[in-house]
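input
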Amino acid sequence: MALYLDESQVRNFNRWPIMGTFVHPNPTPVPATYADEITNLKDWLWQRLTWLDANMPGVCDVGIAENMTNNVIRSYPNPFLDDITVSFDVSKTSMVKIELLNTIGERVKLVYEGSRPEGNYQENINASGLAKGLYLIKLTMNNKSYYQKVIKM
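output
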């Protein structure tokens, strides 16, 4: 990467000749060359990642991982352009709510809310007005929520 940026870093330090000079509180000694600057950055990143691994054990739980893989809700096609079909099974008469959520958990679309008797169902979601990206389909049934990741292209 340093070789790839070689020409641009030369232009940068010709325009702003600050290499090897104190500009702001940075590690001492101040690197005299671009290669030394890259070495210092790599060393700092390695030390930081080592510290993070030692001091932040475990995984980050966002609260939905246990229900992400399920056989209750299915969606296709995934990824999709504007329309996606959600299939789900109801084992006994239940209140059902289907929502489309953005990546921070905000509801961007209420797809269905109401009672459904036992059976297999499909709901079509038109997402033509939504931006491309990752979304979650949330199915709430019998006071339990199920999630399916979908990608709008």
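quick obs: Helices lie at 6-15, 34-55.
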